[in-house]
């Protein structure tokens, strides 16, 4: 902390081996700096990882500063960040886990003569990188825990009962070599195990485990993490762990995990997408409880994330420690798995000639310097392919996928494309296709993918959905979030994908056709086509004309929806068709005065309500609340509803006060309705002036 107070020091480095606690230290430094008011602003970008993504770093910093990027390029984003940071007299910027030289100016971080009030703290595994490439003026070495500190952490994690097995536990602890990441994972793997035989067997596994020879990963750490993996209770959760390793360099989107997991049939004994979503959340919790996955810290969200997790911020992203990720990929490359992650594009043609590559079932191609692909991907057993590249444009040759007929998951969400290869039509077994921020004139080839279940074209520039989409009769989820150029969806395309459970058209198509006006391809789909989607559970759409919301629209199975209507339109939601709804978000609709009327029972099983930007809303209900309404509500978020001054609470459990008046002011708050045994009022809904 003294270095932070020293005006002559602008660049500070923290270094140490993987798993020693650099990220934890960086978080603590940020917390202390804010509490001691050493800087006007503290901003962080954590877990930058081996493949730095400048856009992500910029967005992380922008989120803390309250900036929102639209479609700016990298240089414009850097300019806006630099201008925002320079508004503060003193700023601390923390960049965690860098693996190579970062050009701070390219990101938008003031440096050189412009760095007057800006300090930068960097963490890395390499002292040389910090001092030579990044020009740090002082470096701090984070070392292994001493034996006393290690035992304290081990005991805290495994529980006090470990004292009864202290002699054998100490021997197990020594195999962790004082590294927090190893100590925590081993302690959690053995937590609750009271039999001495189990502990002795764990010690034997640690002592006899063969060295992994993973670059930058200590052999003892590998052994400890392998033990934790072996102690996972089911093959299902082990498969998810390996999938995270294939996807994870930095934060991992839960939306991506679900879509890829579906395509690989990872989730057992579930059928609907709602069940699959719940199963994923459950499996992720098991991995978090084992410290094999981590929560994402300091994440700032501005946009709708897709169709599966909505505004549930806790289930948006997870993180895998980079050491854990290295071990996951090492395990995945062994034995029957035959998964491979490629980080260098050099020699890709030659690599394809090797038998172990040709027999791979999963490939994650993460190449910063990838500018050209071979004509064909010769991997006849391939089921999973992820392509990541920071090239501004990358062409996929037309014959590229001709030899990969078994492919089930294709993720192109981190590569910039301008056309889809014709060989995509050969992928007769493809179940999941993800594309992000690409520009396409023609996507008709998608119609050949008859087994496709998940299709995601988030933030892509697409002008029309082709009529060939009518052939996607097994499609379960269609995500066209932020496809703002989409103007044409021909009639009968939506009604033809009758198996659809999740549909997202937020910030996308708005030109719905009027009922009863003509037919043919030149006319757009009508909202009434949604009635043919009898399996629909999640619906996210935008409507410019509220008159298109016909009373004939009935969604009996909806559990979550976001319907964005022209914000100036005066309307009250008709709740008769949403009796199965569990999650409701209403955002930026100043024309709304009430959410429901007092005639029909409203949202009887609704669990979560998010209201924001309803500046003219007087009350949630126009009149008395109908009996049976909002009986299952557990979470309410109300923001920026300035006319809404007071609430009356809903009925409480028997034996407790029935109504509680409550002043809310501007209502910029989040309230949890789950009963905890404390006397916390639960304000809600009737029109009432205090």
List keywords for this structure.
690 residues, alpha/beta, Rossmann fold, Arc Repressor Mutant, subunit A, 5 domains, 14-stranded mixed β-sheet, 5-stranded parallel β-sheet, 18 helices, disordered C terminus
Number of domains: 5
Give the spatial strand order of the biggest sheet: 9-10-11-12-13-14-15-16-17-18-19-21-23-26
Percentage of β-strand residues: 15-25%
Architecture of the largest domain, CATH level 2?
A: 3-Layer(aba) Sandwich
Largest sheet at a glance? 14 strands, mixed
N-C termini distance: 50 Å
Structural features, described:
Helices cover 25% and strands 17% of the residues. The chain has 690 residues and is α/β, with parallel strands linked by helices. It has five domains: 2-141, Rossmann fold (3-Layer(aba) Sandwich), CATH 3.40.50; 147-230; 235-322, Arc Repressor Mutant, subunit A; 468-566, no CATH class; 571-690, no CATH class. The strands form five sheets. It has a 14-stranded mixed β-sheet, covered by helices on one side. A five-stranded parallel β-sheet has the order 2-3-4-1-5, with helices on both faces. α11 packs across α15 (322-332). The model is unreliable at 301-305 and 646-690 (pLDDT under 50).
């Amino acid at each position: 902390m003294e270095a932070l107070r020293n005006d002559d020091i602008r660049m500070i480095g923290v270094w140490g081996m993987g798993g020693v606690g650099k990220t934890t230290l960086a978080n603590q430094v940020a917390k202390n700096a804010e509490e001691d008011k050493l800087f006007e602003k503290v901003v962080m970008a954590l877990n930058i990882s081996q493949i730095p993504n400048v856009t992500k770093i910029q967005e992380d910093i922008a989120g803390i500063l309250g900036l929102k990027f639209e479609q700016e390029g990298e240089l414009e984003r850097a300019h806006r960040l630099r201008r925002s940071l320079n508004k503060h007299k003193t700023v601390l910027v923390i960049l965690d886990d860098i693996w190579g030289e970062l050009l701070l100016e390219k990101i938008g971080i003031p440096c050189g003569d412009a760095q007057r009030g800006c300090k930068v703290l960097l963490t890395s595994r390499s002292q040389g990188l910090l001092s030579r490439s990044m020009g740090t003026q002082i470096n701090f070495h984070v070392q292994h825990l001493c034996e006393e500190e290690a035992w304290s952490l081990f005991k805290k994690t495994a529980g006090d009962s470990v004292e009864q097995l202290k002699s054998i536990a100490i021997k197990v602890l020594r195999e962790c070599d004082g590294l927090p990441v190893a100590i925590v994972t081993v302690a959690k793997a053995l937590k609750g195990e009271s039999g001495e035989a189990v502990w002795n067997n764990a010690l034997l596994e640690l002592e006899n485990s063969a060295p992994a020879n993973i670059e930058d990963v200590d052999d003892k750490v590998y052994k400890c993490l392998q033990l934790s993996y072996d102690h996972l209770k089911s093959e299902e959760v082990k498969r998810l762990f390996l999938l995270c390793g294939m996807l994870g360099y930095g934060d991992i989107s839960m939306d991506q995990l679900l879509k890829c997991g579906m395509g690989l049939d990872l989730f057992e004994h579930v059928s609907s997408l709602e069940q699959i979503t719940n199963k994923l959340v459950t499996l992720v919790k098991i991995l978090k409880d084992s410290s094999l996955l981590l929560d994402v810290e300091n994440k700032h969200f501005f946009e709708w994330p897709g169709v599966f997790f909505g505004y549930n911020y806790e289930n948006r992203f997870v993180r895998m420690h980079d050491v854990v990720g290295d071990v996951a990929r090492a395990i995945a490359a062994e034995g029957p798995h035959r998964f491979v992650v490629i980080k260098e594009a050099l020699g890709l043609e030659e690599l394809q000639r090797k038998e172990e590559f040709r027999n791979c079932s999963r490939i994650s191609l993460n190449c910063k310097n990838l500018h050209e692909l071979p004509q064909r991907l010769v991997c006849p057993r391939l089921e999973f392919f992820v392509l990541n590249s920071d090239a501004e444009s990358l062409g996929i040759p037309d014959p590229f996928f001709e030899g990969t007929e078994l492919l089930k998951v294709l993720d192109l969400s981190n590569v910039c494309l301008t056309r889809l290869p014709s060989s995509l039509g050969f992928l007769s077994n493809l179940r999941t296709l993800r594309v992000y921020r690409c520009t396409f004139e023609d996507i008709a080839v998608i119609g050949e993918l008859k087994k496709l279940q998940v299709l995601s074209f988030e933030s892509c520039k697409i002008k029309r959905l082709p009529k060939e989409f009518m052939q996607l009769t097994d499609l379960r989820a269609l995500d066209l979030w932020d496809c703002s150029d989409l103007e044409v969806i021909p009639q009968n395309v939506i009604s033809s994908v009758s198996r659809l459970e999740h549909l997202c058209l937020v910030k996308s198509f708005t030109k719905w056709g009027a009922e009863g006006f003509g037919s043919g391809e030149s006319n757009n789909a009508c909202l009434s086509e949604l009635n043919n989607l009898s399996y629909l559970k999640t619906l996210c759409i935008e409507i410019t004309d509220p008159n298109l919301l016909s009373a004939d629209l009935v969604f009996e199975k909806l559990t979550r929806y976001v319907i964005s209507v022209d914000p100036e339109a005066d309307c009250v939601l008709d709740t008769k068709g949403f009796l199965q709804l569990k999650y409701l978000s209403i955002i930026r609709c100043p024309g709304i005065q009430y959410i429901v009327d007092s005639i029909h029972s409203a949202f009887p099983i609704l669990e979560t309500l998010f209201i924001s930007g309803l500046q003219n809303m007087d009350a949630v209900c126009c009149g008395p609340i109908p009996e049976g309404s909002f009986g299952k509500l557990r979470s309410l978020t109300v923001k920026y509803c300035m006319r809404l001054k007071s609430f009356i609470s809903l009925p409480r459990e028997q034996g407790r006060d029935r109504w509680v008046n409550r002043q809310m002011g501007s209502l910029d708050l989040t309230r949890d309705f789950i009963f905890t045994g404390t006397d916390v009022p639960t304000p809600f809904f009737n029109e009432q002036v205090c």
